[in-house]
Amino acid sequence: MSRLDHCYNIADLRKYARRRLPKGVFEYVDRGAEDEIALTDNREAFKRLKLRTRFLVDLSERDMGIELLGKRSELPMAIAPTGVAGMTWYHGEVELAKAAAAKGVPFTLATPAVTPMERVAEVAGGRLWFQLYMWGDVDASYNLVSRAKDAGFEALVVTIDSALGNNREYNKRNGFGVPFKPSVRSVTDMMLHPEWLVGVMGRYVATTGMPRHENYPEKYRHRINRGEVGQLGPGRHLSMTWDEIARMRDFWPRKLIVKGILREEDAVHAVENGADAVVVSNHGGRALDSAAPTIDVLPEVVRAVGARTTVILDSGIRRGSDMVKALAMGADAVLTGRATLYGTAVAGQAGAEKALSILHTEFEKTMAYVGCRRVSEVTADIFAKPLLN
Length: 389
Fold this sequence. Notes:
By secondary structure, the protein is of the alpha/beta class. The chain has helices at 10-20, 23-30, 37-48, 85-88, 92-103, 117-123, 138-151, 169-174, 184-191, 194-207, 242-251, 264-272, 294-305, 320-328, 338-369; strands at residues 66-68, 71-73, 77-79, 107-109, 128-132, 155-159, 255-261, 277-280, 310-313, 333-336. It has one domain (3-169, 233-388): Alpha-Beta Barrel (TIM Barrel). Strand 9 (310-313), helix 14 and strand 10 (333-336) form a beta-alpha-beta unit. The longest helix has 32 residues, at 338-369. The termini are far apart.
């Protein structure tokens, strides 16, 4: 039996991912910022929401899919951008994108991926979105977006919640970053995970060399083992305002998504500047540690812009029931990041497909319990009334 045969939920996939990955890689995927308050609160906010069952509903015909930004998605979800996918599995971005295509949901490629976007577009198939961090080198950002357009990506996801970066102290303790600075601790950690060392890092070394941020401008594509001096990347666009979103709207000809919304007025600004969708997100608890849980913020965003644009919820999705709760709160769809990364870390494409299958099964069963046969039937009346007062 394979590992996947023993994985019955996302927590099981997380357990096996933790065993297989070096600590530095696993904690980069798994953990949050500072004291991890936001990371914990995201999950606790979902747990507080209780549902009411509705039985004796004809469930013989069911449809869990939706139209998401003009095209069919087999679930009301998309794969969130996760920059470390290629470090959990050899060409992990490709494996994850193939899994998304096989399961009929969109996949979002992150700016700091270690696989070129053109390679993903060439071999993955399915619906592809590209995530952008606006750099201080603005011309380089627009060149990157031009590459995504030429490669055929159908949507651009502009992440706006990067600010001055993050404070993830465990990355420093583990010595995990790009460029990678070897230490006795980090090298020992890798040596203790020979399957990953040979199957991931070893395959990169034997083929394309040590991994690097392949979608960065050439002068910033530092390999993970070099430790160059000087500026390590293009740097974030610290003077970025909503004018830049409007400019990007004029430049990008396809669907534009703004990710990182936690305020009603920011959602309005996004729509007024041309966004086709907004993502209510606190970066999975990986940015501001005291950020509000996204499920708590979602209703005000839906009230403000839900009639004018697509509203997507990110951060904290671990169960199919979480997806149902998000839809009942007014979201049109959700993003999931860690759940499918755990699967990718365990078994590449097969592991990511397992994660998506788990979420699909849980989603469909929860829908049935609350008496819904299709996504359009999910409304706030599925919640226990005391929680709505």
